[in-house]
Amino acid sequence: MATLAAAPAEFTFDPDSTAILVIDMQRDFLEPGGFGETLGNDVGQLRRTIAPTTALLTAARAAGLTVVHTREGHLPDLSDCPPAKLNRGDPSLRIGAPGPMGRILIRGERGHGIIDELAPAPGEPVIDKPGKGAFYATGLGDLLTAKGIRSLVVTGVTTEVCVHTTVREANDRGYECLVLADCVGSYFPEFQRAGLAMIAAQGGIFGWVAESPAFIAALQASQRRT
Ligand code: TIU
Question: Which end of the chain has fewer CB atoms < 10 Å from its terminal CB, N or C?
Fold first, then answer.
């Protein structure tokens, strides 16, 4: 077992039943010209997560932890995109519209891909999801059950949208979720602050929050003991 300081209280995990979840680190959200920027957002707010997440993945892979990546996106015919999601915002900037990196949030397009810096390692599962949550209409739940995972260390973007939705889904399914503050990002600094505060409030109402160096130190200390 491993333990680290977190909010609202210490987080204890068994590395054998812990997975790292890397949510939607896609070009459409993080790179200039992608979906996120077309919506008027500052991608720099998300890009600060790349370096700490790279260090986290290096440590997690060295320790043999399960790493799972997700991508938000839709089939080219948009048959898996409900009208309520599709018909949102300016029609020229909608999902499926042509963007500088291909059709926005369409599977197989360049913008839908994970950024080069955080490319999945061979064998790491990549979950394609049509919603904001990673459990809705995906095989993630079955995958985690098959691997005996009980705890999730959550990273990715954006804090108040896909990270929050996924952590809420996971908490309701019985997973203990640790969200790494430096490895999750929002386009809006006030949402980053409030989003993290909401998770840890009320005694950790749906999770724990810590910084990635504390998690890495706890993981490596647990390895030295075994
Ligand atoms: N726009 C925004 O904040 N987020 C998304 O649309 N998707 C994810 O958070 N991945």
Answer: C
Measured in Å, residue 158 CA sits from the centre of ligand 1 at 5
Question: Would you say residue 173 has pLDDT above 80?
Answer: yes
The verdict on the CB of residue 21 being under 6 Å from ligand 1 is no
pLDDT at 130: 98
Positive or negative, the Cα torsion across 87, 32, 161, 175? positive
Positive or negative CA dihedral for 11, 214, 182, 102?
Answer: negative
Q: Dihedral angle at the C-alpha atoms of 141, 145, 150, 151, nearest 10 degrees?
A: -50
Mean pLDDT of 37-46: 91
Of the listed 162, 177, 182, 183, which one is catalytic?
162
- Contact yes or no for 147/122 (Cβ under 8 A): no
How far is 82 from 63, CA to CA, in rounded Å? 40
Task: State yes or no: is 129 an active-site residue.
Answer: yes
What pLDDT is stored for residue 33 in this prediction? 82
**Tens-digit pLDDT profile for residues 65-93:** 999 999 999 999 999 999 999 998 787 78
What is the C-alpha separation between 147 and 5, in angstroms, rounded?
Answer: 26
In angstroms, the CA 34 to CA 106 distance is 12
Average pLDDT score over residue span 134-154 = 98
